[in-house]
Design brief:
Strand order of the largest sheet: 2-1-5-4-3
CATH superfamily of the largest domain: Histidine kinase-like ATPase, C-terminal domain
Shape: elongated
Structural class: alpha+beta
Length: 439
C-alpha cells in the first residue's frame, strides 16, 4: 500500500472537480452578465453552457476509472480460467492504487502457487510412473483413466492402457490373476510372468473423484521380498532343528560310547540306565519329528458356519478364560477343529506364562469384514528377541517346549486367509490376536 502522504484521494479529486466546475459556472455567468447586461439571460446561458460541459468533464474524469474497471473485470475472468499472467499498471496516486496493488499481488501469489503445484504434480507423476507397483485407476463404467508404466507392462506389453476397458485387458491375463480380481478382496496370488514364477499382492480401494466412485487397483510384486523372507525363515528353522537334534544325538552318542566301554569291561550294572536314557532321547526325537510332520502337512480347512456361544463354551472345557465383552451376534465360517486347536495352543501358553488363571481373557470382536480373537494374560510378556522368533517353528524358551504351538496357530490362521500377531500389554502381559476374514 502506498503512503498516504503521496496520494490525492478520490474524494479530494471529486471535490476539486466540483470546485472547478462551480468556478467556471460563476465566471461564465459573470462574463455573460457583463456582455449582455442581462442577469437572467446570462444565468440561463451559463446554465446551458454548464449542462453541455458537465458530461464532457465527467467523461474525461471517469474515462480512466472505467478503463481500469474493464481491465479488472477481464483480469478476474482470466484468473477464473486459470490464467494468472495478467497484471495492471496505474499511477493515479489514489485509493484505486491499493486495489491494483492487491490485484497484482494476488496474481503473483497464484502464479507461484500454480508453479509449485505443477512441480509437485510433476514429482508425484514421476514417482507414480516409475514405482514398481502397478497402478490402475478405473471409472464407474470400468474404463481405465490412469495406468502407470508397471501397469502397462503387466497388462498391455508396455503400451498405453488409458481408455481401454479393464475387463478386456484382464481377459488376456493368466488365470491366477483373473481369479484374484474376481474374489473382490485383497489377496496374494502367483503366476508365471516373464518365464518365472512371480508373486503379487492385490489391493483395491474405492474413492470419490469429481463426484463419481472410482476404483484403484494396486499390484505389488513381492517375489524378491518373499524369497528373502523364505530364506531367512528357513535359516531360523534349520538353526532350531539343528539345536533340537543335537540335544538328542549328542547324549545318545556319548551313552553309546559309555555302553560299549562297560561291555568291554564286562560291567553290566549300569547298562539298564544307559539304555533307558537312550530310549528316552530317541522317543523325544521321534515326537519332535512327528510334530514337525503335523505342521508340514496341515490339511485344507473345512469351513463350517459357526455360532459363537457354543464354540466358546466348548473351548472353555479345555482351558479356562474370562470372556471379555460379548461376542458378535453374526455367524462366521471357519474350520472349528483347526481354530479350536489354534486357540487351545494360545490359551495353553497364556496359562503357562505365570499369569493368574483368572486374568487370562478372551475377546471376540468383529472389525469390518474381519473377526479378531484376542487372548490376553498378565505374565511377564516377551522380550523383543522372543517376539521376533515366537512364530518360527520349533523356537521355544521353555525347557520342555516343542516350539510348535504358536507356529501351528500361525499356519492355521494363514490357511484361513487370516493372520496372528503378538504384542506386549501395558501393565505387563501378552496379547495374542488371531484375525480371520468374515465370509
Amino acid at each position: 500500500m502506498r503512503p498516504a502522504s503521496h496520494r490525492f484521494s478520490l474524494t479530494g479529486k471529486l471535490a476539486l472537480l466540483l470546485f472547478v466546475f462551480a468556478l467556471v459556472a460563476t465566471g461564465a455567468t459573470a462574463l455573460l452578465h457583463y456582455l449582455l447586461d442581462n442577469l437572467v439571460l446570462a444565468a440561463s446561458l451559463s446554465a446551458l453552457l454548464c449542462a453541455l460541459l458537465a458530461p464532457w468533464l465527467a467523461h474525461r474524469y471517469l474515462a480512466r476509472q472505467l478503463s481500469l474497471f474493464r481491465a479488472l473485470s477481464g483480469s478476474v475472468a482470466s484468473f477464473r480460467d486459470g490464467d494468472f499472467s495478467f497484471s495492471l499498471a496505474r499511477r493515479s496516486k489514489d485509493e484505486l492504487d491499493d486495489l491494483i496493488e492487491a490485484h497484482n499481488e494476488l496474481g503473483n501469489v497464484l502464479r507461484q502457487e500454480r508453479q509449485s503445484l505443477f512441480q509437485r504434480e510433476l514429482l508425484l507423476d514421476t514417482v507414480v510412473q516409475n514405482t514398481p507397483t502397478a497402478l490402475v485407476l478405473t471409472e464407474p463404467g470400468g474404463a481405465i483413466v490412469y495406468g502407470n508404466l508397471a501397469a502397462r507392462q503387466l497388462f498391455n506389453d508396455g503400451r498405453k492402457i488409458e481408455g481401454v476397458r479393464f475387463a478386456q485387458l484382464v481377459e488376456r491375463t493368466p488365470a491366477p490373476l483373473r481369479e484374484a480380481l474376481g474374489e473382490g478382496r485383497d489377496r496374494l496370488f502367483t503366476f508365471e510372468y516373464g518365464g518365472q514364477e512371480e508373486t503379487y499382492h492385490l489391493a483395491r480401494r474405492e474413492f470419490h473423484l469429481n463426484g463419481r466412485v472410482h476404483t484403484l487397483f494396486l499390484f505389488k510384486r513381492l517375489t524378491a521380498e518373499l524369497n528373502r523372507q523364505e530364506v531367512a525363515t528357513w535359516k531360523k528353522v534349520i538353526r532350531v532343528i539343528s539345536h533340537e537334534l543335537n540335544n538328542s544325538l549328542a547324549p545318545i552318542t556319548s551313552l553309546a560310547h559309555s555302553g560299549a566301554e562297560l561291555l568291554r569291561r564286562e560291567d553290566y550294572s549300569k547298562l539298564d540306565r544307559i539304555f533307558d536314557t537312550i530310549e528316552e532321547r530317541a522317543r523325544h526325537l521321534h515326537g519332535f519329528l512327528r510334530a514337525y510332520s503335523s505342521v508340514a502337512k496341515l490339511p485344507v480347512p473345512e469351513l463350517e458356519t459357526i455360532q459363537w456361544s457354543p464354540f466358546l463354551m466348548r473351548l472353555q472345557q479345555h482351558y479356562a478364560f474370562q470372556l471379555d465383552g460379548k461376542p458378535p451376534e453374526t455367524t462366521v465360517r471357519f474350520d472349528p477343529a483347526q481354530i479350536e486347536q489354534a486357540l487351545i495352543n494360545v490359551l495353553k501358553n497364556a496359562h503357562e506364562s505365570g499369569s493368574s488363571p483368572e486374568l487370562v481373557t478372551l475377546a471376540v470382536r468383529q472389525i469390518g469384514r474381519m473377526v479378531r480373537m484376542e487372548v490376553g494374560d498378565r505374565g511377564p510378556g516377551m522380550s523383543e528377541t522372543v517376539l521376533a522368533n515366537a512364530l518360527v517353528p520349533f523356537y521355544s524358551t521353555k525347557r520342555t517346549g516343542s516350539g510348535l504351538g504358536l507356529a501351528l496357530a500361525r499356519e492355521i490362521a494363514e490357511a484361513h486367509g487370516g493372520r496372528i500377531a503378538l504384542a506386549n500389554r501395558d501393565g505387563g502381559g501378552l496379547t495374542v490376536s488371531l484375525t480371520l476374514p468374515v465370509e
